[in-house]
Automatic annotation (TrEMBL):
The chain crosses the membrane at residues 157-179, 186-206, 212-237, 257-277, 289-316, 373-391, 693-711, 718-737, 749-773, 794-813, 833-854. It comes from Candidatus Polarisedimenticola svalbardensis. PANTHER family: PTHR32063, RND SUPERFAMILY EFFLUX PUMP PERMEASE COMPONENT 1. This is Efflux RND transporter permease subunit. Keywords: Membrane, Transmembrane, Transmembrane helix.
Length: 898
């Protein structure tokens, strides 16, 4: 624990209240008394002395041993402090009130050290609070935890782990549906825990912790870790079914796809390379996701190339001659029968869904290969039409608007209200909330206030099962409150740079040089904006200006009467606010000591003006003789941007009319005639956020470039990878459609998901095109190679895609897991689900067709190069241009030069 802030605590103190008349009659003043008493109660080190052979530390002590000794302290000739003051040991006067559950309360805000673990600290705090309940000194007290960051973190992590386990189960079921073998499903599924174990081991030695983002990276890997294993296992089985023995099938099956799955894994890892070029939250998210994702995927590659072939070798049946004829046991027979029946059910499901889909896909691909231009035109039309609607409706936001677990209201009392008046109103508001407890489903409520205003908070008994939303509850309470003239009740609180809640708002930023003109303009605009339909009201400013009275020292008079302006400030401060004197020590406890005038001597302006101020000649002058009291415009803070003053107006908008109201406000803002030097500008927070979003999309663009270079290395061509790159923009359409269908906006974590999506969606295309090139290198025509490759890769492509999508579905449905205080990973999950869905469907159709376009372009380029070469060299035969692979030889006729 680093710090504890106490609000509303009633601590006892020794209060010295001076009688102004008695002080003046004694020829004294509060400034001199405070100075004298402040230096009269101390203990200090005074060096060392020798006592014989011993060296002793010397301490000078001048302390009061009792309150009565303080009363008997002489402050003037024949004048004791008790003669001119009342000295009491009592609870200090508070200018702040707090109540919880209709009882007086005080709040503790506990803050942890920077390197401390939040969940561990919160657990210890909760345990300590429980132990304190048995303390007899706290008999009758009740503690309520309003916010527990550790509980929020634990709930969110538990939700994420639960989603991960469900996602793993879904991935296993998908694998069994396609593989229809318990052993093979188990072998491929084991790649998930093995890869995660390796990733966690590396994270441990790298000093990483399990937090929201590292766990999110691991949950993402649940669906991705089986991709490489599925491709390897499927290729091994294909070769084994083709007649190869199990040893050759395992060796060649893994070897044929080794380079392809290595490159597909690297395309996912390479998206993290631009992280050093990104700033803001995007860099933070990518950095935390990098280690778990990259290490786990690298481990999955190792598992796929080493562990999977070995396990498949051990499980595949040996040659018929080597099999033994041992009689199986009864348990084995029953299991085999059950497996056979289940296999039959799964086969019928697969044939009825994916088998039919595969056959229809083959016919569709043949149709479009014969009519390639029709597909291009159709894609362009669909791309333009389908992209327009979701991209218009889905906004890019900083965070998701998660439903809050209660309501909050902020109140400003009428100017000039006293603490007692504010307390009376808030007690009435508390009774109103208590009467609505059953209607709103409230578990509890808390309020705090001073004389200028305060806050009302209520939280639901079960936020996930209430029938009324937080916003509806807020409006219901606001309707029932008795608002007195001059009072303002707000449903949100603003700061100059960010909103504290998720209610729909419209910020207006005013910039200017003259602060007074800026404030006057803002007040006029507020009245104008409130007349617009759809505007509910203003959000409460976090720093409402107080009522302020300025005492202006007349320097000429002060110099004439030899009055020090600093002494004037000290007299007023000591008289009204009081002066803290050195603490009084009693039985090991420190007790605060404060001196000030009694209440009747400081309650109004006329008393203030009669305060006596000492002069440098030893006399005294009334405060009114050297000062003028003037009411001043008060400001707690002044915000500036680019050396210009900033004033923010935040309007609350009616739910469901945000777009229309925003358009009306924007139209009005463009027609406002502002004073000279005052301008309307963009939201400061929005500018910074837009910069962060721009940086993330730049990182996404760099990721595309890196992936393109990797594929160029794999295919030994920089033309063919373009057919795979096309799946990236098409997958982005799926991202927006997914968010549009779910009614969600795209947040920063969702944009991070787009960066990761770029590295994931190209994987199936890489494996497909690599296999096409292999078939063509073996002498097969392009059309036959495309037809055979797409048919054989249909199952592994569908398997890898559905396992990844299935792994993300539970996470998308879980929300944040920590209520409105937790980090929402909904947008991240929906980004991968929507992008992978469209990318998978389009990979099997768009990539083969566009492969033929780019292959034709490559042949045209080769013919052009041939003609260019033919002008300057003499050839033995026509040059031959073929697709080359590192594991295969290709004979090329070389030109014979002179």
């Amino acid at each position: 624990v680093a710090n504890i802030q106490l609000d509303g605590m009633e601590e006892k103190e020794i209060l010295i209240e001076l009688d102004r008349r008695k002080v003046a009659a004694s020829g004294l003043n509060i400034y001199q008394l405070a100075q004298d008493l402040g230096g009269d109660n101390f203990t200090m080190s005074s060096g060392t002395v020798l006592e014989g052979a011993n060296k002793l530390a010397l301490r000078s002590i001048a302390r009061y041993d009792s309150v009565d000794a303080l009363r008997q302290r002489m402050v003037g000739p024949s004048v004791r402090l008790g003669d001119i003051a009342t000295i009491r040991y009592e609870e200090e006067e508070k200018d702040y009130r707090a109540r919880a559950m209709s009882e007086p309360a005080f709040a503790l805000v506990v803050m942890k050290e920077g390197d401390a673990n939040a969940t561990e600290v919160c657990r210890k705090l909760v345990a300590q609070v429980e132990r304190m309940k048995s303390d007899p000194r706290l008999s009758g007290f009740e503690s309520i935890v309003l916010f527990n960051q550790g509980a929020v973190i634990e709930e969110s992590l538990a939700t994420m782990l639960q989603s991960g386990m469900i996602g793993g189960i879904i991935a296993g079921m998908v694998l069994f549906l396609f593989l229809r073998r318990f052993r093979m499903t188990l072998i491929v599924s084991l790649s998930i825990p093995l890869s995660l174990l390796i990733g966690l081991t590396v994270m441990f030695f790298a000093g990483e912790t399990l937090n929201f983002l590292t766990l999110l990276g691991l949950m993402l890997c649940v669906g991705l870790l089986v991709d490489n294993s599925v491709v390897v296992a499927e290729n091994i089985f294909r070769l084994h079914r083709g007649g190869a023995d199990r040893r050759d099938a395992c060796i060649h099956g893994a070897g044929e796809v080794a380079l392809a799955i290595t490159m597909s894994t690297l395309t996912t890892i390479v998206v993290f390379l631009p992280v050093s070029l990104v700033e803001g939250p995007g860099q933070f998210f990518l950095t935390r996701l990098a280690i778990p994702v990259c290490v786990s995927l690298a481990a999955s590659l190792l598992v796929a190339l080493v562990f999977i072939p070995l396990c498949v070798y051990l499980t595949l049946p040996a040659a018929a001659a080597a099999r033994t004829a041992a009689e199986p046991g009864r348990g084995t027979v029953l299991f085999l029968r059950f497996h056979e029946r289940l296999n039959g059910i799964m086969r019928r499901i697969y044939d009825g869904v994916f088998g039919r889909l595969n056959r229809n896909y083959n016919r569709m691909l043949a149709f479009f290969l014969a009519r390639r231009l029709d597909l291009v035109i159709s894609l362009l039309v669909v791309f333009v039409i389908t992209a327009a609607l979701p991209m218009k409706e889905v906004k890019v936001v900083e965070s998701q608007d998660e439903e809050a677990g209660g309501f909050s209201l902020y109140v400003e009392m009428p100017p000039g209200s006293t603490l007692e008046e504010a307390e009376t109103w808030f007690l009435g508001a508390e009774q109103t909330i208590e009467g609505m407890q059953e209607e709103l489903g409230l578990e509890g409520w808390f309020l705090s206030h001073d004389e200028e205003g305060g806050e009302l908070h209520g939280w639901f008994d079960n936020p996930h099962s209430v029938k009324i939303t937080a916003r509806e509850a807020t409006e219901r309470v606001k309707e029932e409150l008795h608002v007195i003239p001059g009072m303002e009740v707000f449903t949100g609180q603003e700061s100059e740079t960010e909103d504290e809640n998720s209610i729909a708002t419209y910020p207006v930023m005013l910039y200017g040089e003259d602060i007074d003109i800026l404030e006057e303009t803002a007040q006029n605009l507020e009245k104008m904006f409130l007349q617009i339909d759809g505007v509910l009201g203003l959000q409460r400013r976090s720093d409402p200006p107080p009522n302020e009275l300025g005492l202006v020292v007349d320097r000429e008079l002060a110099q004439r009467y030899q009055v020090n302006p600093q002494v004037v400030a000290g007299v007023v401060g000591y008289a009204l606010r009081g002066a803290d004197l050195p603490k009084y020590y009693d039985d090991g406890k420190e007790i605060p000591v404060r001196i000030r005038f009694q209440e009747e001597d400081r309650e109004n302006l006329s008393n203030l003006e009669n305060f006596m101020v000492p002069t440098q000649t030893g006399g005294a002058m009334p405060l009114s003789a050297v000062t003028d009291a003037t009411f001043l415009p008060a400001r707690n803070r002044i915000f500036r941007l680019d050396k210009r003053a900033l004033r923010r107006i935040t309007l609350e908008l009616e739910d469901g009319t945000e777009e229309e109201t925003t358009a009306r406000l924007a139209s009005l803002s463009s027609r406002i005639d502002l004073p000279e030097g005052v301008t309307l500008g963009a939201n400061v927070t929005r500018i910074s956020f837009n910069d962060d979003v721009g940086a993330m999309f730049f990182a996404a663009l760099l990721s595309v470039v890196f992936i393109y270079l990797l594929m160029g290395f794999l295919f030994e061509s920089f033309i063919l990878p373009l057919s795979i790159i096309l799946t990236i923009p098409l997958s982005i359409i799926g991202v927006y459609w997914m968010h549009f269908a779910a009614g969600k906006d795209l947040d920063m974590l969702g944009i991070v998901g787009i960066v990761l999506l770029i590295g994931v969606v190209v994987n199936n295309g890489i494996v497909l095109i690599d296999y096409v090139n292999r078939l063509r290198a073996g002498g097969m025509s392009r059309t036959e190679a495309l037809a055979q490759a797409t048919d054989r890769r249909f199952r592994p492509i569908m398997m890898t895609a559905i396992t990844t999508i299935g792994g993300m579905i539970p996470l998308a449905l879980a929300g944040s897991g920590g209520g409105d205080d937790g980090l929402s990973y909904t947008s991240f999950s929906m980004t991968l689900i929507g992008g992978m869905t469209t990318a998978t469907l389009l990979t099997l159709l768009v990539v083969p067709v566009f492969y033929t376009f780019f292959d034709d372009a490559r042949e045209v380029l080769a013919e052009t190069m041939k003609r260019s070469l033919g002008k300057g060299v003499r050839l033995k035969s026509d040059p031959v241009f073929v697709d080359c692979h590192p594991q295969q030889a290709a004979k090329v006729a070389l030109p014979e030069t002179d």
